[in-house]
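hiii, so i know i said id send this last week but things got crazy w the move. better late than never?? heres the sequnce for the chain we talked about at the cafe, plus the structure i predicted for it. fair warning i was half asleep when i ran it
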Amino acid sequence: MSTVIYDSEHADESREFSLLLAITTILSSSFNLKETLTHIFDVLHHNVSLIKGTLSLYDAYSYDLKIEVSYGFSDEEIKSGLLEKWLVVSNKTLDTEQATIIPHVEEEVSIIGEHDPELLNDESFICIPIIIGDSKIGAISLDFQYKNDKNLFQNIKFFSIISLMIGQEIKLMQLLEKEKESLRKENIKLKVDLKEKYNIHNMIGRSAPMIDIYEHIMQVAHSNATVLLSGESGTGKELVAHAIHYNSNRAEQPFIKINCGAIPENLLESEFFGYEKGAFTDAQETKMGLIEAANGGTVFLDEIGELPILMQVKILRVLQDREFTRVGGIESFKADIRVVAATNKNLEEEISQKRFRKDLFYRLNVFPIILPPLRDRAMDVLLLAEHFLEKFSKENSKEINDISQSALKLLNDYDWPGNVRELENCMERATILCQRDTILPIHLPNHFQKNNERLMIPEGDDSIDSFTLLVENFEKEIISNALDSTHGNCSKAARTLGTTHRILSYRMRKLGLSKTDFRSSDK
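okay and structure toks below
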């Protein structure tokens, strides 16, 4: 028969360890400070005879100390100003950065105010400053039942550990709140920037077709009407969709783009509508779809003509009833969304070929906007080219501020089958290649030269004469570009071409070029 010896000191340590573990769990379970501290005070009340407690923190803006959480105070005590007395002690404790310890509170009027000694139990008070590194965060004040001096000392040590744990958690909460506030401000700034970016007045183009587009955007933006954007690839349908959203009443809500042609057919439904947990093998949890994510905002269905027929039926339901059902679910969800669709296909032809549903087309075609190709808005080419030149010069840290007349002629003579997107790519390439302050024809893609009649071989000429003429025309083009970029300064042009002023003057006379044909004369 073994003898069990009860070790009270080890039992107290074991109980304290269990309490600390429980408090750690509480601290990690919620970011609601009042809820967390109230729960901790409850645990201390039931395990170490806590009677009252407060947590005081510095205000982030005024840096005044304020009581954030109080526990165990009656309405009468609050009305009597007892909390204010505790706050005064907390301030003094933080000033000294040392704990305030009062073994018998009935002897201290500043803590409990005027009182009847016969109505008091023997209680102790401790106020512990919460200091993390060099930062004073606040103070925790506790009123608990006094048992003996040894128990008081143990409680002080135990509460000091708890205050440190609470301080670390508060510091984390404050950092998270600061980050959250920073993200909130960044989000607001981003929305303002997007609204400004997609403002009608910032869109590039002053041709008659574009003026019509701007009018259509302003007419439809503040309605909830479904918009169908059609036009060739690269005409700016997504830009117009953004402009409609950011000039609407939904501008503060999400803008969700769905590229209907980029999502595999077997994933379309789950991407659009989400799915319930267990809907299929890999559905480990419920997932929100893109339609649901756009609730309150705008859904941009890009390349709507690429949707398979079966998916068109499901989109039709969303447009008709503003409802959808997740994959594997039975519950219907409302979709408060504005729909803008875009296509580069002729949907009426697709209907005749049985590739697009007629009823879906009529649902989409409430307010149609047809975007013109760039070849029909020739006067906008220069505006767009200069805009892209400025954009890509900044991105590449270059100081390119001009486009030569010969390069502009090539840009204007080209028919732009790829529309604005092709022009943007062209100017990005030219900016990368250009090592001067002016874009020249040599910086443009090779196929642009086919539009330059000065480099074309005249039909019917002998091959030798044609070749000689081609070389002369090409030489004339190079020298013209150099003189154009140096504003007619022959000396600078010669250095640019890696030759001498005398040789350049000779070649100019032979080719029939004169410096007076350019912007200025030699200085």
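btw The chain has three domains: 11-177, 201-372, 376-517. thought thatd interest u
miss u guys!!
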